[in-house]
Design goal:
Shape: globular
Oligomer: single chain
Low-confidence stretches: none
Largest sheet: 5 strands, antiparallel
Radius of gyration: 16 Å
Structural class: alpha+beta
Strand content: 25-35%
Strand order of the largest sheet: 1-10-9-6-7
Order of helices and strands: EEEHHEEEEHEEHHHE
Number of strands: 10
Length: 227
C-alpha cells in the first residue's frame, strides 16, 4: 500500500439532544502512510460529556498514529483522569499501516467498527460493551433488550479495552460510528455507504439515516481504499 492508499470522511447529526457529545478525529502521516481514526460518544447529554469525548478522541488518534490503537485508548484514559472532567465516553479507534498486514481496532462501550470486504461482505469488527450484549452472549435471548442495551460496561475511564484486527488486503472500506448511527442505519444502508467512492458522501448517507431529528447524536467516519 502506498502512503495515499486510504482516504477518510466524516459526518454528524446532533439529533434531538441538547448537546453534540459525539466527536471524531482523523490523523495521517504522509511519510509512512499510516492513518488513524477515532470516534467517541460522550455518556450523557451534557457539556461535560462533550468535553470528555473531545479530549478522548484527540488523545487517542494522536497516540494511535504514533503507536497502536490500544495505546491510543490508554492515552485517552490517562489524560481524561488527569483533566478533572467527571464525565465519561465510549470509544473506537482504528489504525491503518502499510507496513502491517492487518487493520487494527481498539474500543470500549457502544461505538462500533464495520468492515466491507473485497468480496462485498459487511462484517462487524466489534461488539457492544453493554449489559444487553452480555445477556445475549450468555443466554439464548436474541433481539434488542431496551432496558439493558444502553447500560455500558466498558468506557474510556473504566475497565479494560478490547483489541482486534482484520486482514488489510481483503478490506475495501471501514466505518467507525456511534450508536446513533448503528441504531438507525440498516446493514444494507451501511454497506451502500461504504461502497461510495467519496467517503464524505458515504458518511453523510449514514448521518442522514439517523436524521436531523433523530433521538441521539449520530457520527460516522468512513475510510476507504483509493486504489
Amino acid at each position: 500500500m502506498s502512503p495515499k492508499s486510504w482516504c477518510a470522511g466524516g459526518a454528524q447529526r446532533q439529533g434531538r439532544r441538547e448537546v453534540q457529545a459525539d466527536v471524531f478525529a482523523v490523523a495521517g502521516n504522509q511519510a509512512n502512510g499510516r492513518i488513524a481514526a477515532a470516534v467517541t460518544d460522550g455518556i450523557g447529554d451534557t457539556t461535560a460529556a462533550a468535553a470528555a469525548a473531545d479530549l478522548a478522541a484527540e488523545e487517542a488518534v494522536g497516540a494511535a498514529l504514533a503507536a497502536t490503537p490500544e495505546l491510543g485508548c490508554i492515552r485517552a484514559r490517562i489524560q481524561l483522569a488527569a483533566s478533572g472532567i467527571t464525565a465519561d465516553a465510549s470509544i473506537v479507534t482504528a489504525l491503518f499501516d502499510p507496513a502491517h498486514s492487518r487493520v487494527q481496532f481498539t474500543w470500549a462501550g457502544l461505538c462500533r467498527a464495520y468492515v466491507l470486504t473485497t468480496d462485498g461482505e459487511l462484517r462487524r469488527a466489534t461488539y457492544d460493551h453493554s449489559f444487553g450484549e452480555r445477556i445475549r452472549r450468555r443466554t439464548k435471548q436474541r433481539g434488542p433488550l431496551r432496558l439493558y442495551d444502553r447500560k455500558v460496561t466498558r468506557t474510556v475511564a473504566r475497565h479494560e479495552f478490547v483489541t482486534t484486527s482484520l486482514p488489510a488486503h481483503s478490506t475495501t472500506a471501514v466505518l467507525l460510528c456511534t450508536d446513533g448511527v448503528s441504531q438507525s442505519a440498516s446493514e444494507r444502508t451501511i454497506a451502500a455507504a461504504l461502497l461510495h467512492d467519496d467517503p464524505n458522501q458515504g458518511a453523510e448517507l449514514l448521518a442522514e439515516a439517523a436524521g436531523i431529528n433523530g433521538p441521539d447524536n449520530a457520527t460516522a467516519v468512513v475510510l476507504r481504499r483509493t486504489h
